[in-house]
Write a structure and sequence with these properties.
alpha+beta, three-stranded antiparallel β-sheet, two-stranded antiparallel sheet, 4 helices, 5 strands
Length: 129
């Protein structure tokens, strides 16, 4: 059985790919929530706000069309917003569930960023000679 963290990471992969309408809506919810917003859902409005690293939902939606989004938001609340981050590699920006101080969605992206920083420093050092 998958943990909430693993299930949330799987959902974030879907959000990053944005293939289904539900995934696109979850991505819009996530972007709005991370910035603190009121999100309209069907004929109801659910208000989300942050309390430290926790997400608090003021109204529970029970509309069948948005069951997927409600499940996604429940996973967000269980895992914690402080664990959900965007990859810092320029041009990526994928959402992921971070482990400790993780800043990039994959090890390859972290390595690529480190390499680019190193190359810039090398080029800068050569100009001064």
């Amino acid at each position: 059985m998958q943990s909430d963290r693993e299930r949330l990471q799987a959902r974030l992969v879907g959000v990053n790919e944005g293939k289904s309408t539900a995934d696109k809506r979850c991505g819009q919810f996530l972007a709005a929530i991370m910035n603190g917003a009121t999100v309209g859902v069907g004929v109801r409005v659910m208000k989300f706000h942050r309390e430290g690293d926790r997400l608090v939902m003021d109204a529970q939606a029970e509309i069948p069309e948005i069951a997927s989004e409600v499940e996604f938001l429940t996973l967000l609340m269980n895992v914690g917003l402080d664990r959900v981050r965007r990859c810092l590699l320029p041009g990526c920006g994928n959402w992921f569930v971070a482990s400790k101080g993780q800043k990039f969605c994959t090890l390859q992206h972290g390595n690529r960023y480190s390499y680019e920083v190193w190359r810039k420093r090398q080029k800068k050092g050569r100009r001064g000679r």
